[in-house]
Amino acid sequence: AVMQGYWNLPERTELAFHTDESGRKWYKTGDIVMDQAGEYIFVGRRDRMIKKRGYRIELGEIEACLYGHAEIREAGVVAHAVTDGEIQVVAFISTKGGAKLSIIGLKQFCSEHLPLYMIPDRFNQREALPKTSTDKVNYQQLLELLDH
Known about the structure:
GMP Synthetase, Chain A, domain 3; two-stranded antiparallel sheet; alpha+beta; single chain; 148 residues
């Protein structure tokens, strides 16, 4: 069982829980999952939000879109600060079987599934993405790759 809410913090409880039509409370984990053939596969979290040109962008949503591409094996999306405070959204990908994907094709795919303001500014294709000790995408190392 999960807790029923935050002690004496009804506003925070309301943000963290969803009550369904039967009255049951569900904790909002922030996990993003993708259903493939009846199985839920973890693809990211909802707490990696940035603001770019006035738009709120959830980087995990971009990753979820990329995981929907038939040739993409791994995806990691980061926000990278460039000159004059400009932020670029950079998508790192690795493909199944090492297939080379064109930037035009990737942008076209993203434009079919995401609003224009969420399409990554850059794509970086690698054999594999760096991982943490728990086998998750290491976003810090992705950012370091951009600095070199």
